[in-house]
Design goal:
Keywords: Membrane, Transmembrane, Transmembrane helix. The chain has two domains: 30 residues; 103 residues, Immunoglobulin-like (Sandwich). Helix content is 31%, strand content 35%. The chain has three helices and seven strands; from the N terminus they run H-H-H-E-E-E-E-E-E-E. The chain is elongated and about 85 Å long.
Length: 141
Amino acid sequence: MNWGTKLMIGMGMFMAFIVVLAVLMFNSKTDALVDMDYYEKGLNYDEEYNSKEQVKTDNAAPDIQLSPEGIVLGFKNSAVGNIRLMRVSDKKLDKKISFETNPDREFAVVTTEMVKGRWRLIISWNSEEKSYLYEQEVNLQ
């Protein structure tokens, strides 16, 4: 085999490789974007940043206790807000829950019906006329 034939075989294999990658990319069901409304979130970033900093300033990070039955969130003061549980690998499994703490300043999230594994827990709440935002990775068992 001469060098021209080897060159053509090499180019053909490279082109086949590129075509296979293109087909895999177009058939992929996942999207790299975590949030479809990323532009709007970018516009509201200052508010989100201030809420995260308020948690640090007031030392108001919630106490998170994990168990096989669920997640118990303990707050410094009574709170009203929203909880988002995001499964990064599958957006269809994401959950959004509104909550209000009980007299013990706690709220329990039942996770027995949820897929086990790593989740992103995002808690946004209002307490004593202040807005807070806290994020943490949790591993459901």
